[in-house]
Amino acid sequence: MNAAPHPASLADLALEIRHPADMSALRWLHDRVSAAERSALGVGREDAGLFIKDEAGHIVAGLVCWLRGQDAYLHMLWVDAPWRRHGLAATLMRTGEALAAKRGCSRALVNTMQFQAPDFYPRLGYVPMGVMVDFTGGHDRLYFRKTPLAEKAPAPDLPPGLRLEVSAPPAHEDVRLVEEGLDAHWLLHIDRLYTELTVMARDSAGDPLGGVMGVVDNGYFTVVDCWVEPAQRRQGLGRRLLAAAEATAAEAGCRWATACPMAFQHPGFFQAQGYMPALHIEDYLLGHGRYWLRRPLGTTP
Predict the structure, then answer these.
(1) Strands 14-18 and 208-217
(2) Fewer Cβ neighbours under 10 Å: the N or C end of the chain?
(3) What number of other Cβ atoms are within 10 A of residue 188's Cβ?
(4) Is 136 in a helix, a strand, or coil?
(5) Residue 224: Cβ within 10 Å count
(6) Helix (H) or strand (E) holding 244
(7) What stretch(es) of the chain map to CATH 3.40.630.30?
(8) Spatial separation of the C-alpha atoms in residues 73 and 82, rounded to whole Å
(9) How far is CA 156 from CA 111, 114, 159, 232, in A?
(10) DSSP strand pairing (14-18 vs 59-68)
(11) Is pLDDT above 60 for 261?
């Protein structure tokens, strides 16, 4: 019988800082945070994609959805500029809602930046949940929800030469094209695209024991994933990782740091590091609340 491994002391750990992010570190963090999220929510995530294509098979509009139990999160919606004001976005939304309803979802959630036509969603029956003021670059991020969802959507009324395709899960390339379309629209309003950074703690053998992944976006740093292996907790490692990520972001010109933990992701940890409440939404996802916490960089918690 093998003895349980002893937790490594902080003195044995080296921090590995990468900006841009190290992809293997990013995947390691994503896998652990996603597994913990599935455990807390009690349900996994089903991805679905709805894409409108022209006669040549090129995507001119798309919607990517994440389905979890009763909640459908409409993750990305994009319409190519020449095809806007032709009803494509409304067709995608209604068809996506019907797909979600057939999968057992009773509620749809969406968020959008201030410059991404937020008036569009209330016209489809979405009601506000909250606003994160000055999310990045002086622009607000708005959060909406809609319930109930209709299982039957109106028949797509598409311009000649266009067709609607649904896939679950969607092809990686199709999702990437929608992301690139959104990025191009983003750059019309924000000076430059965001970059990602990772900070990892490794033991003397090089095995990862914890890390932070975040986004550097025009003077704003957002913590996306923060994880410490169970055997390493309550030793100050999370605090050390977060401080290193904040220092790296500050060096890149960030003035503010934001964390957006769900209620089961220990928002008190960030508050103990000097983060102050900026927004709280009850029942953000499957009955769990979410917190938006912020602190200025360059100050001592």
Answers:
(1) unpaired
(2) N
(3) 8
(4) strand
(5) 18
(6) helix 237-251
(7) 12-41+192-296, 46-186
(8) 26
(9) 24, 28, 10, 53
(10) unpaired
(11) yes
- The H or E element containing residue 233 is none
Please report which confidence band the pLDDT of residue 9 belongs to, taking 50, 70 and 90 as the band edges: low
Predicted pLDDT of residue 3: 38
10 pLDDT band, cuts 50/70/90, is: low
List the 288-296 sheet strands across, edge first: 14-18, 195-202, 208-217, 220-228, 256-259, 288-296, 276-285
Look up the CATH superfamily of 46-186. Answer: Gcn5-related N-acetyltransferase (GNAT) (3.40.630.30)
Cα(1)–Cα(3) distance, integer angstroms: 7
Half-sphere exposure of 187 (CA within 13 A, CB side): 9
Cβ neighbours for 279, distance < 8 A, ≥ 6 positions apart = 130, 131, 132, 291, 292
CA distance 285 to 248: 31
pTM, entire model: 0.92
Name the one residue in this structure whose structure tokens are 């319930």: 147
If you search the block for the tokens 């769990």, which residue do you land on? 288
Secondary structure class of 70 (helix, strand, coil):
coil
Local confidence band at 71 (pLDDT 50, 70, 90 cut-offs): very high
pLDDT tens by residue, 220-258: 999 999 999 999 999 999 999 999 999 999 999 999 999
Question: CA 34 to CA 9: how far, in whole Å?
Answer: 26
Nearest in space to 143 (alpha carbons), one of 98, 178, 113, 99: 113
- pLDDT, tens digit (0-9, with 9 covering 90-100), for 87-99: 999 999 999 999 9
Q: Which CATH number fits domain 12-41+192-296: 3.20.20.80, 1.10.3210.10, 3.40.50.2300, 3.40.630.30?
A: 3.40.630.30
